[in-house]
Design brief:
Structural class: alpha/beta
CATH architecture of the largest domain: 3-Layer(aba) Sandwich
Strand content: 5-15%
Number of strands: 14
Helix content: 40-55%
CATH class of the largest domain: Alpha Beta
CATH topology of the largest domain: Rossmann fold
Radius of gyration: 29 Å
Length: 558
RNA sequence: GCGCCUGUGGCUCAAUGGAUAGAGCACGAGAUUCCGGAUCUUGAGAUUGGAGGUUCGAAUCCUCUCAGGCGCGCCA
C-alpha cells in the first residue's frame, strides 16, 4: 500500500470517528479510469445506512461525501499530497495526487519494507518426471514458479527453490521395459547425443505404457521391474541410473535456458522408504488405517476422500512419499510457508495430503499450500505422452527461434534466444492462474500485441534513448535532480506514464499476496502501451527520467 | 453419483462488489524530412451461457439451470 493511500485511510477514518462511525477502515482503490483520480474510496456509500439511523445530519450519500471532502481539504497532510479531492456522483471520493508528490515519489527510493520481509518461503516447482517428456505444461509451471519466486524476493521474502522429481515408480519401469523392447543396448545408446537419448527414452516410455495396458505379460514384467527398483536390487540398477541421469542432464539445459535454477533437487527415490515408515508408524494412533492390505488415509472424516498411502505390495505411493518429503524439506529450510506449484488437477490430492501431514505434525498446519494453475490444453485435446500427442518445451522454443530468424534476418543468435524465451514465458504468464490455456502456437510465439517481445521492444527503445543521452555526456544518475519539480505542466501522455509508474510497488504487492504473476504482466503491458504512446507523441527532451524508471520496471518483470 | 474449476466481441484473454465491461489477434481506414514501424492513430465488433435473488451498485456474491474441463483406493 502506498504512503498516499495510508494518508487517505487514516484521515478518513478520523473523520468517520468524529461523526460517530467506529471501526470502519475505508478501502482505497486505484480507479481504472484516470478521470476518476489516482485514488478513490467508496466509504460514504458503505456507511450511509449506519449513519442514517443514528444521525439525520446527512440525508444522502452525496451530502456525506461532500462533508468528508470539505474536512479533508482543510487537512495539511491532504493538501500537501493531493492537488484535488472531490466528491462525485453516487458518492465516490476521488483523490488526485499533486505533480510534486508524484515526482518526489518517483525520485525517492522506496524506503518501505517489503510485505514479506523475514518470511521464509519454500517454493516447489517444475517437477518433471525423469524418463518422460518435458512438455509445455512444465513450461507454464516453471514460468509461474520462477516468477513467483522473484516477486516474493522483491517483497523481501527469502526463497528456497526446490524441484521434486519422480525418478522411481511405474512410469520409470515402463520406460525401462520399453528400452529393452526396442532392443537397444544401453551401450549403443551411450554413444549418441543427449537429444537422441531423450528421444529414445520418450519412445520407450510410450511403448511401455501401451504394453502395460494391452499385454498382460508385459504388465507383469513392468511390475517386476518396478519392484526390483524399489527393492534396490542390482538387476536394473545400472540402466536406471544411466537413463535417469540423461533426463536430469536434459532438464538442466532447459532450466538454464529458461533462466531458472534450484537450491535443491528432491527425488522420490530418496523419500519413499522414509515415507512408508512414517505412514506405518501412524497406524497405531489411527491417522492411517489398514484396508484391504493397503494403508489408507480416510479423508471422508474431513469431507475429503480416501487415498492409498502405502500399497498392498508395501510401496509408498506418491502421497506416502510426500509425508517424508515435507519433513526433509523442513529440516533443510525451516519454512513459514511451502508453496507447491502444481496444476489444478491435483487439488483434491493435495487437500488430503495436507490434512494427513497436519495430523502427523501440527507445524504443517497452514504452512503447506498448493498453488494451482490451469492446464495447458491443445486445441485437439489433452496432451498425453502415451499417444505421442505432446508438445515438448524444446521444440516450442526452437520453433519460436526459427520464426524470429525468418522475420528478422539481421539479428544475432543471442537476441533470437532472448526473444524466443521471452515470448514463450510471457505467453504462459499473462493469463490468470486459474484459467486453462488453450494452447495456440501462433500466440505463444507472437511478437506483437500483448506479448513478451512487445515489452522487450519497448524496453529496448528506452535503453536506446538512454544510450544516446549518455553519449552526450550526461550521466544517468543526474536526471533526477536536474529538473524543476514545480510548474511542469504534464502532457496527457506524460501523465499517463507517470501515474502508471507510481503504481508499481502496489502492483507487486498485490501480485505477491495473491501469487499472481499475471498482474505484473498486465501492469507491464499497460505501462509499455502508455510509454509507446508517449514516445510517439513527445520528443524526449525534458522528461528523461521516465525511461530511467521504466528501465527499472522492465527489469523486474520477467 | 459426489466434489473442484471454467463460461465475457469472430478468436485468445483482462477487469480487489463500483463509475461508459477493457486489451491483443484477425478485419477496415490512416501515420515515418524527427529519439528503433517488433511502433502509433482510428473504425466496426458484447443483453458478460440462461433464469431468479442479495445490494445504493453484480461479469464478480447466493440459488437453480445449461455447456465444457478436471478429480474421486493400490499410478505419478
Amino acid at each position: 500500500m502506498s504512503a498516499a493511500q495510508k494518508i487517505i485511510i487514516s484521515e478518513v477514518k478520523g473523520i468517520l470517528t468524529e461523526i460517530g462511525v467506529e471501526g470502519q477502515a475505508p478501502a482505497v482503490e486505484i480507479p481504472q479510469d484516470l478521470s476518476h483520480g489516482d485514488y478513490s474510496t467508496n466509504i460514504a456509500m458503505l456507511v450511509i445506512s449506519k449513519i442514517k439511523t443514528q444521525n439525520s445530519k446527512f440525508r444522502s450519500t452525496m451530502e456525506l461525501a461532500e462533508y468528508v471532502v470539505k474536512i479533508l481539504n482543510a487537512k495539511y497532510q491532504i493538501r500537501n499530497t493531493f492537488s484535488k479531492v472531490e466528491a462525485v456522483k453516487p458518492g465516490f471520493i476521488n483523490f488526485w495526487l499533486s505533480d510534486e508528490y508524484i515526482i518526489n515519489s518517483l525520485i525517492q527510493k522506496n524506503s518501505e519494507e517489503g510485505s514479506l520481509k523475514r518470511k521464509k518461503i519454500l517454493v516447489e516447482f517444475a517437477h518433471p518426471n525423469t524418463h518422460k517428456e518435458f512438455h509445455i505444461g512444465h513450461l507454464r509451471n516453471i514460468a509461474i514458479g520462477e516468477s513467483i519466486c522473484r516477486i516474493i524476493e522483491y517483497e523481501g521474502g527469502s526463497i528456497f527453490r526446490t524441484n521434486y522429481q519422480g525418478d522411481i515408480g511405474l512410469h520409470v519401469a515402463k520406460a525401462i521395459y520399453g528400452i529393452q523392447d526396442l532392443r537397444f543396448k544401453i551401450q549403443d545408446l551411450e554413444t549418441k547425443s543427449l537429444e537422441e537419448k531423450i528421444k529414445t527414452l520418450g519412445e520407450a516410455y510410450a511403448l511401455g505404457a501401451k504394453a502395460y495396458e494391452e499385454d498382460k505379460d508385459a504388465k507383469k514384467e513392468i511390475q517386476e521391474i518396478n519392484a526390483s527398483l524399489y527393492q534396490k536390487q542390482d538387476k536394473y540398477k545400472d540402466i536406471w541410473e544411466k537413463t535417469r541421469q540423461w533426463s536430469l542432464d536434459y532438464f538442466e539445459i532447459i532450466y538454464k535456458k529458461l533462466n531458472t535454477h534450484f537450491d535443491r533437487l528432491f527425488f522420490e527415490s530418496e523419500v519413499y522408504e522414509k515415507g512408508k515408515e512414517i505412514v506405518e508408524s501412524h497406524v497405531e494412533d489411527g491417522i492411517f488405517v489398514k484396508d484391504a492390505g493397503a494403508i489408507i488415509f480416510d479423508g471422508e472424516k474431513f469431507n475429503l476422500h480416501k487415498r492409498v498411502f502405502v500399497t498392498k505390495e508395501g510401496y509408498a505411493t506418491y502421497e506416502g512419499k510426500e509425508m517424508a518429503l515435507a519433513f526433509l524439506q523442513y529440516s533443510l529450510f525451516p519454512f513459514d510457508l511451502a508453496l507447491h506449484i502444481v496444476a489444478q488437477e491435483q487439488e483434491g490430492y493435495f487437500k488430503v495430503v495436507f490434512k494427513a501431514l497436519e495430523l502427523i505434525d501440527n507445524k504443517f498446519k497452514n504452512s503447506e499450500k498448493h498453488l494451482s494453475y490451469g492446464m495447458v490444453e491443445l486445441k485437439e485435446g489433452k496432451m498425453s505422452s502415451r499417444s505421442g500427442n505432446i508438445i515438448s518445451a524444446f521444440w516450442l522454443i526452437d520453433e519460436a527461434k526459427k520464426r524470429i530468424k525468418n522475420e528478422f534476418k539481421e539479428i544475432t543468435d543471442y537476441v533470437v534466444d532472448k526473444v524466443a524465451v521471452g515470448a514463450v514465458k510471457y505467453s504462459m504468464l499473462k493469463f490468470a492462474k486459474n484459467s486453462n490455456i488453450s494452447f495456440s502456437f501462433d500466440e505463444s510465439i507472437s511478437l506483437q500485441g500483448n506479448s513478451g517481445p512487445y515489452l522487450q521492444y519497448t524496453y529496448a527503445r528506452t535503453q536506446s534513448v538512454l544510450a544516446k543521452i549518455q553519449n552526450s555526456k550526461i550521466k544517468t544518475q543526474n536526471y533526477n535532480s536536474k529538473f524543476k519539480t514545480k510548474g511542469l505542466n504534464f502532457e496527457a501522455e506524460e501523465a499517463g506514464v507517470l501515474r502508471q509508474l507510481i503504481q508499481f510497488e502496489g502492483i507487486v504487492e498485490d501480485a505477491s499476496e495473491s501469487f499472481s504473476p499475471n498482474l505484473i504482466c498486465n501492469y507491464l503491458f499497460d505501462l509499455a502501451q502508455k510509454f509507446n504512446l508517449f514516445y510517439q507523441k513527445c520528443p524526449i527532451l525534458k522528461s528523461e527520467k521516465e525511461e530511467f524508471r521504466l528501465t527499472l520496471t522492465s527489469k523486474t518483470g520477467l
